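Handout, section 3.2

Students often ask what a structure token actually looks like in practice. Rather than define it abstractly, here is a full record for Saccharopine dehydrogenase family protein. The first block is the sequence as you would receive it.
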Amino acid sequence: MGMNRDVFKNIILASRSLDKCHAIKESMLKKGLGEIGVEQVDADDTQALVALIQKHKPKVVVNVALPYQDLTIMQACLETKTHYIDTANYEHPDLAKFEYKEQWAFDKAYKEVGILGVLGAGFDPGVTNAYVAHAQRHHFDTIHTLDILDCNAGDHKRPFATNFNPEINLREVSSKGRYYENGKWIETKPLEIKQVWAYPQIGEMDSYLLYHEELESLVKNIKGLRRA
């Protein structure tokens, strides 16, 4: 967003930790990416979010908080009739499990007030969904099997590398695997299924079956899927 200021002319960065917002603001100024505003807010407090949205009246709220805050932010957007985007599926703080049911429940109310909610607009979910939708629309009549292979080739010589929030990543790799086959969801033990895959430009890497939220929406919307 900061690199596309012709589109995002006014940006307000809000967080519980105001010092982090100021650090990002200074970093953007040093990089010549322009001025942004900063605010402090508790994303678990719907009414505090409503007040902040009403103060600045943004066209869209982009939620890059933890998945635990998805529902409170979505509710604040509903009450203020503000478009909503996030990058990760809602998770309950005390239960390492995620599904779209509670977010999809906003669909009717969002339509009634004329706002759009875009869920999972990251890379996976996000870009992966767009790739599959493009393939279905432009290249195939039906898609029978779907495999999403994702590899981070970065290496900082440490035993564990996280490319998202560490707590969420640890929940992900320690949870049961899950895949779809012949109309049923099948669970596996954590990291039970391993495959060595040759990735373009990276080479062979150990890859493990994990459940990820985009499968829930892809299974619902992609015609003819037998396994995913």
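Discussion prompt for tutorial groups: The mean pLDDT is 93. How would you have guessed this from the sequence alone?
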